[in-house]
């Protein structure tokens, strides 16, 4: 099972969205967590955008990087520039940077847009990971 950590500044918008979407798509193949450099609370519009897609938000809670201290991940993905350095410090086989605007969603439309953008990246991640794990011959 591939372990993935999503890191953003607040753990209130992008990283919980990414956590919920990857769990929704491939919980059977991924152990997924999210954390923030300076955690706040999960944005209500972000949660509503996930619910609109039929994605469960059960268990999503804002937490800091101290919640994953001492853990090793296969992949750590920073979701904003403010979190990139902190994400690089987390022990992992691979680090990736996907930069989104990590601010509270000021509107439902903005939350839906960010959710769709993250969803597209998550689908690509799963596709690439699946291809790397399966031999063609």
TrEMBL record:
On whether NAD is a keyword of this UniProt record, the answer is no
Domain Phosphotyrosine protein phosphatase I, chain residue ranges per copy: 2-128
Keywords of the record, alphabetical order, are: Arsenical resistance
One GO biological process term: response to arsenic-containing substance
Q: Is Protein biosynthesis included in the keywords of this UniProt record?
A: no
**Name of the protein described by the UniProt record:** ArsR family transcriptional regulator
Please tell me the species this chain comes from: Oceanimonas pelagia
